[in-house]
């Protein structure tokens, strides 16, 4: 599960993902990105790599008018992508990268119903990319996206039985390559990120409220 994340410093985004030709971006710092909100994604089409703004919550064209149904999925399980009616065509040719610099997960507290929010990031605090799937939108509708999840690494296992699939930088080009249509090959890229390169710290429960924003949400607290 990945239900909240951050992109607190978007300034390295263009260079980090090979978009140097787009010198300016209107993306603002976000410390509590939540489902249904607009998010930036990186896609690569035959004409080149580009940045798009979509809604977080995967809504294929056939579902866009499905009112009263359950909310669109924000995550897609890596193990079932090849067999899922919703996702199997997207894993072939609608792959994207969702840039982030951290994400939140809620750790159970023994003997309590409440959970402790944890902020997870790379040890060097650098930007990284979630593996994602997207829809391009049509007829004036906005595109949408979902974050792919995988099994947890050693750091995340005590907190949750899932974690977002973070791509190793060396594999990002392969993931985005529109000529790579082999579903089996794409699935091999969706492995747990090395735990030794990550760190998790407890943060304020203010992050539980999606309307809350600000850098203080990712600040470590003492337990």
Task: Explain this structure.
The protein is mainly β. It has one domain (5-218): SOS response associated peptidase-like (hypothetical protein yedk fold), CATH 3.90.1680.10. The protein is 9% helix and 31% strand. The chain is built from four helices and twelve strands; from the N terminus they run E-H-E-E-E-E-H-E-E-E-E-E-E-H-H-E. The protein has helices at 13-16, 88-93, 172-176, 183-187; strands at residues 5-7, 30-33, 38-45, 48-56, 75-77, 95-100, 102-108, 115-122, 128-135, 144-150, 163-164, 198-202. The strands form two sheets. Strands 3, 4, 5, 6, 9, 10 and 11 form a seven-stranded mixed beta sheet that branches. A five-stranded antiparallel beta sheet has the order 2-1-7-8-12, with no helix packed on it. Strand 3 (38-45) and strand 4 form a beta hairpin. It is globular. The two termini are 24 Å apart. The model has no long low-confidence stretch (mean pLDDT 91).
Shape: globular
The structural class is mainly beta
Helix content: under 10%
Assembly form of the protein: single chain
Question: What is the top-level CATH class?
Answer: Alpha Beta
Major pleated sheet: 7 strands, mixed
Which whole number gives the mean pLDDT? 91
| CATH level 4 superfamily | SOS response associated peptidase-like
Number of strands: 12
